[in-house]
Write the structure tokens for this entry.
Amino acid sequence: MARGTDRCLREIERHESAEQSYMDEGVQILELARNARRLFELQQPREKRRLLNFVLSNCSWEDGEVIATFRQPFDLLAQTTIKAARREAGTAPNSAKMRFGWGTRIRT
């Protein structure tokens, strides 16, 4: 019986440790997201290109603007951002395009 109890205690300890690890990683991801623009701007062009190739699946030129298409799961993040921005601006929430500060539209 003691062997089973010991095993259960070890399993509980392992799960608690994993839960804390997930929490720590989640905080790190949020910090990275909050600082992403500043960190991107500090990178060398080669590293910027690597990141853009990781996040974007395709870019095109349309009516004098760059159209960027996100890879998964970044497309979901972009859609959420678009919907939130549209809600704040009081415009159509179903639009799949949004203008960003420097004239780029993002297609999700």
User: Anything to note?
Assistant: Helices lie at 2-34, 36-42, 45-55, 74-89.
